[in-house]
C-alpha cells in the first residue's frame, strides 16, 4: 500500500490552521508541497501559491500535487523568498522549516509585508528567540505563538501581524514566547537548555551576570 505522502505533521497542521480562509495564500519554501496540498483540499483559499528556491523540491511538490489531484489548485513558482510574489499578491504567507535568520532576511527583502492586512505564519527551524526579537523591533505583534511537537522536537508556530508599533521586547518574552497550554512548560524547559548552553560561551562577566539573572527568573516559571 502506498503511504500517504500528503500527511501533515502537527507543525504544518498548526501552521495551516493559522492561514485565514478567503485569502490568496503562499507557502514559501514549500519543498514537498504538503502544506499547499492540505490547503487545496481544505478548499478555503481561492488561490494558493507554493514556491521554492530550488527546482528539485519544486519538482517533488509538482509530483505530490499531481498524485493528490490538486495540481490545478496550486500555482508553483521557482525563486528566492517572497520575490516570487508581486507586492500584496498574497495576504497569508507561510515560511516554515527555515532558520530564523533566513526567514527574517526574506521578510526584510519584502517590506510590503509591513501591512496590517498581511498574516505571516512563521515556523522557524532554529532561533525562535531571535525571530521574536526581530518581529517586535520591526513593529509586528504575535497573535498566536503555539508550541508544537513534531518528529520528537518542539517548534513554535508564530502568527504575526504588522501594527507599526516598534518595541524593544523583554528578552524573557522572546525566549519563552507567549506560551500557554499543554506544551508551554516543556517548551520553556527546552529554551532554557539552549540558553544555558549559550551562557557557557559568554566571556563578558557583565553580560553573563545579566543572562544568569534572566535564567534564574525563567527557571522560577518551571
Ligand atoms: C526544510 S524545508 C521545509 C519545507 C516545508 N516548508 C516544511 O516546513 O516542512 C526548507 C525548504 O525551504 C527552501 N528554501 C530555502 N531557502 C529558501 C529561499 N530563500 N526561498 C525559497 N525557498 C527556500 C529549501 O529549498 C527547502 O525546500
Largest sheet: number of strands, sense, barrel closure:
7 strands, mixed
Q: What's the Cα radius of gyration?
A: 18 Å
Q: Span between N and C termini?
A: 45 Å
Low-confidence stretches: 1-5
Give the domain tally. Answer: 2
Please estimate the helix content: 25-40%
Would you tell me the structural class of the helices and strands? alpha/beta
What value does the average pLDDT take?
Answer: 95
Q: What is the H-and-E element order?
A: HEHEHEEHEHEEHHH
Which range does the strand content fall in?
Answer: 15-25%
Could you tell me the CATH topology label of the largest domain. Rossmann fold
The helix tally amounts to 8
* Widest sheet: strand ordering: 3-2-1-4-5-7-6
Q: Short description, anyone?
A:
With 222 residues, this protein is α/β, with parallel strands linked by helices. The protein has helices at 10-17, 34-42, 55-68, 100-108, 128-137, 171-176, 184-200, 205-219, and strands at residues 24-28, 47-52, 74-78, 92-96, 119-123, 140-150, 153-162.
Amino acid at each position: 500500500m502506498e503511504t500517504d505522502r500528503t500527511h501533515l505533521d502537527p507543525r504544518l497542521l498548526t501552521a495551516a490552521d493559522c492561514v485565514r480562509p478567503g485569502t490568496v495564500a503562499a507557502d514559501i519554501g514549500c519543498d514537498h508541497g504538503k502544506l499547499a496540498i492540505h490547503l487545496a483540499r481544505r478548499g478555503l483559499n481561492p488561490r494558493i501559491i507554493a514556491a521554492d528556491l530550488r527546482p528539485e523540491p519544486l519538482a517533488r511538490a509538482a509530483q505530490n500535487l499531481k498524485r493528490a489531484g490538486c495540481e490545478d489548485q496550486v500555482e508553483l513558482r521557482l525563486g528566492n523568498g517572497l520575490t516570487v510574489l508581486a507586492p500584496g499578491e498574497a495576504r497569508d504567507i507561510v515560511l516554515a522549516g527555515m532558520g530564523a535568520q533566513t526567514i527574517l532576511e526574506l521578510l526584510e527583502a519584502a517590506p510590503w509585508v509591513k501591512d496590517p492586512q498581511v498574516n505571516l505564519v512563521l515556523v522557524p527551524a532554529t532561533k525562535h528567540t531571535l525571530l521574536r526579537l526581530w518581529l517586535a523591533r520591526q513593529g509586528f505583534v504575535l497573535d498566536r505563538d503555539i508550541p508544537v511537537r513534531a518528529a520528537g522536537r518542539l517548534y513554535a508556530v508564530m502568527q504575526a501581524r504588522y501594527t507599526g508599533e516598534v518595541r524593544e521586547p523583554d528578552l524573557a518574552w522572546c525566549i519563552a514566547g507567549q506560551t500557554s497550554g499543554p506544551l508551554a512548560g516543556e517548551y520553556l524547559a527546552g529554551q532554557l537548555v539552549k540558553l544555558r548552553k549559550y551562557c557557557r560561551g559568554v566571556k563578558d562577566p557583565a553580560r553573563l551576570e545579566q543572562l544568569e539573572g534572566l535564567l534564574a527568573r525563567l527557571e522560577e516559571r518551571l
